[in-house]
Amino acid sequence: MPSHVETLIALECSLHEPQIRCSAERLGARLHEQFREFGRSGAVYNRLSILAQVANADVQPTIWAQDFALETLSDDLALLTYRSAHIDQNGQLHRHTNRSSLWQWTDDGWQMRFHQGTPTEAFEKKTTEIGPHCVNGLT
């Protein structure tokens, strides 16, 4: 069973990509059957409600993510935390958010079991940092 931080960061960032976010099949493959999310807005979602939103998806924002940290909780469970923001048409960051995702190893590989987004103060985009960052899934 893979447990490297790069694998989970790549999976997390892939969820920012429009071709994943707008495909119920692709998105569903990455979400655990018992998936639950506490959204940035305070709303609570489950797997079915997230997949239902895919059908009504409009233009997806460009997402910047950085400052990833992974904590292995057990052989089959890992907590990934990071910061994200939307990038506007002028290249400026807005909607700054602290994020945490609980990833569980299953027979189908790593799947997201839980996710939470919490608004946070603005932060600067780190383009020269040593370590991972991604823009809509591109690390």
Automatic annotation (TrEMBL):
Q: Which InterPro entries match?
A: DUF4440 (IPR027843), NTF2-like_dom_sf (IPR032710)
Q: Where is the DUF4440 domain?
A: 9-112
Gene3D superfamilies reported for this sequence: 3.10.450.50
Q: Which SUPFAM superfamilies match?
A: NTF2-like
- The portions of this protein that span the membrane are none
The molecule here is called DUF4440 domain-containing protein
Source organism: Chitinivorax tropicus
